[in-house]
Sequence to fold (301 residues):
Amino acid sequence: MWSLGGFFSWIILPWSISALLLPDFWGYFGSFSFSTLLPVFLFGAMWGIGNINYGLTMRYLGMSLGIGIAIGITLIIGTLMTPLLQGKFMQLFGTTGGQLSLVGVGVVSYAGLLKERALGIRAQEFNLKKGLLLAVMCGIFSAGMSFAMDAAKPMHQAAEALGLNPLYVALPSYVVIMGGGAIVNLGFCFLRLAMSPTISIKADLSQAKTLLITNALFSILGGVMWYLQFFFYAWGHANIPADYTYLSWMLHMSFYVLCGGIVGLLLKEWNNVGKKPVSVLVLGGLIIILAANIVGMGMAS
Fold:
């Protein structure tokens, strides 16, 4: 299922949309030197390692604690590294907006932990030490997507020179970025299929066809929705002033957590957990929204 969804999100959609946008698909990619494409690809592969660790983190820490730690570290590393290298560190976390964003993620994650405790939910293979190590690795390596976007700026400029709308100039670079991530993720999946004695494709395919088709369609839908997050991320990235482009990753990651909480409420996942977890969730969401508005007003001024 991970492979099927990933095949659509990392390969089919990036290639298809880039082919529609570019007047000469092969000519565009052939115009870049190996030294330009290599770091973009490697940062994409770095993100791919983080993506694998993300799934493993959920296994050992559970959803709420795992997401809180993994996304929190991803937010910090992915957002801080670029301004740190540019000598603009204090422009981010020396500001109220940057600080509140991190606090909001922490509060929402704590609310999720309270919810799991209230419902008696526990990770299937809970292992604090292993889970924390994987969460830290996930946070560090997942930030590769932010680094890849920064390394791909020459590709964005070349796409703009070809007449692409500024909203779409980052999309062709996804072919290389997500290609790096796809190789790592698909390679991991195929190794698991080949080496794990507890996994049997034959047994899986012996399930009822309706069940297989339903799961396959949901997996593909998940892959499409995953790609769309970065489709619209490119829109936001294009509309943020050049001096503040590193803030797009902070906003993306913090709203990742915020929207997860909202969807959980709409799907009634927070029913029967008591008032405290819901109140903490709402507080964390309001902090993230406030942080985003402070950041936006700062850029506007």
